[in-house]
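Input record, target 12 of the design panel.
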């Protein structure tokens, strides 16, 4: 498996802040990853595992944001569904993922890093979990 650590989930026409293009952005990193998975990784017998620190827009609760963001929120959710459908293993970062790399600054203490986002709150549904 190829393991990728990402700050945010891959965009799916959901990036940017242009009022005109919210949810209609021309780029989909999700589709690029899916194509790479089908054309390169799968033929080589390699799977894809994404560890995401923060789900951007996909986790926003309905009614908790301005209606102008609706297309971007729906696009972000569709992107996560596409990745799951392609067999990509998706999950949020866990404390075990926060390890000190030998080249990290000496003052870096992984245990002091507190994961943020919806996947750290057991009372909410994590958009990265399988449905």
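The sequence produced for target 12 reads:
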């Amino acid at each position: 498996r190829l393991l990728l650590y990402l700050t945010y989930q891959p965009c799916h026409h959901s990036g940017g802040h242009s009022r005109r293009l919210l949810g209609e952005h021309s780029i989909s990193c999700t589709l690029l990853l899916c194509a790479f998975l089908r054309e390169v990784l799968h033929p080589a017998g390699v799977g894809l595992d994404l560890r995401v620190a923060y789900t951007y827009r996909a986790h926003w609760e309905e009614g908790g944001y301005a209606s102008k963001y609706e297309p971007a929120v729906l696009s972000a959710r569709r992107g996560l569904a596409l990745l799951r459908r392609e067999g990509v293993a998706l999950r949020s970062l866990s404390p075990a993922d926060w390890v000190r790399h030998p080249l990290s600054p000496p003052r870096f203490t992984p245990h002091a890093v507190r994961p943020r986002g919806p996947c750290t709150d057991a009372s909410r549904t994590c958009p990265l979990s399988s449905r």
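Confidence is low (pLDDT under 50) at residues 112-125.
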